[in-house]
Amino acid sequence: MTAIAKKDESTIYIEPVRTEGINLVLIGLSPLICNRMSEKVKGDLLMPRGRITAADKQSRLKHNPLAEYRNSPYVLPQGGDTLLGFMASAIKGAMMTAALDLPGAKKAQIGRLVYVVGDYVPIYGIPKLFMSVTRSADMNRTPDVRTRAIIPQWAALVTIKYVTPLLNAFTIVNLLSAGGITAGIGDWRPEKGKGSYGQFSVANPDDPDFAMIKQHGRIAQQAALDEPETYDEDTAKLLAWYMNELKMRGREQK
Predict the structure, then answer these.
(1) What does the alpha-carbon distance between residue 114 and residue 108 come to, in Å, rounded to a whole number?
(2) pLDDT (average), residues 134-151
(3) CA neighbours within 13 Å on the CB side: how many for 30?
(4) pLDDT tens digits, one per residue of 41-88
(5) Which residue from 193, 14, 167 is spatially nearest to 105, judged by alpha carbons?
(6) What is the DSSP code (8-state) at residue 17?
(7) What sign results for the dihedral spanned by CA atoms 242, 247, 251, 252?
(8) DSSP string computed for 10-22
(9) 126: which DSSP letter?
């Protein structure tokens, strides 16, 4: 009796996923406006207060500019070089946005193949108090005054990992550079339309501009939060009016 050989089944072979990392510096081309959601706002989302009566509105202060300023940046734990940080996901988001406009890259693909190490990246630079008129998201686009920390000269050190051989260091630098111009990070960034804040260029960690900005770390940032300096003349006038109005009403804020 002749033996009949069985047909070999197809074998699926999966190449191991390999990643490489690169350390890069982001150097601000335009001021960075911090946009962390305050604890008060998050608390209201978690447990809404309900409808506020007219009497309540009269007795409460709608804004506390100094508290809003200090709550607007992300604060990093003790032990790091900086007090201020920014969400790492925002930098990856800038790269994904840039992929929409660049040939050969797809937003979803970049989202899968690239990630920025850590939850937050350290931000170097001195924050200042910035007050500006904004529009609410309601139907009437109600105007309001919002106070945030703005960092005129800033830099960040990031570590980016990517999947090879689909991506390489040259592609990552080009994609990040494009994201720094077309998307940016923080409030009023180009990605949102009208703003041009939060733009950045990409450099190596030994860049002399980074060495200069890196001098403004945790100690200087804490001092700037404790004793804020206003960003521009409009802010200075508005804050002075507010503080004078507090005194006239017999209230005090620190």
Answers:
(1) 10
(2) 83
(3) 17
(4) 666 666 777 666 655 555 566 789 999 999 999 999 988 899 999 999
(5) 167
(6) P
(7) positive
(8) P----PPPEEEEE
(9) -
- With beta carbons less than 8 A apart as the criterion, state whether 197 and 153 touch: no
Q: And the tokens for 196? A: 């041009």
- Alpha carbon 215 to chain centroid distance? 21
Q: How many Å is the maximal CA-CA distance in the chain?
A: 110
Q: Enter the tokens of residue 81.
A: 């070089």
Structural domain boundaries enclosing 160: 18-36+62-248
233 is a domain residue: yes
Does any domain span residue 240? yes
Q: Is residue 5 part of a domain?
A: no
Number of structural domains in the chain: 1
- In degrees and rounded to multiples of 5, residue 116 shows phi and psi of -95, 130
Is 78 part of any domain?
yes
| Range with the poorest average pLDDT among 5-9, 117-121, 219-223 | 5-9
The tokens for 253 are: 């804020």
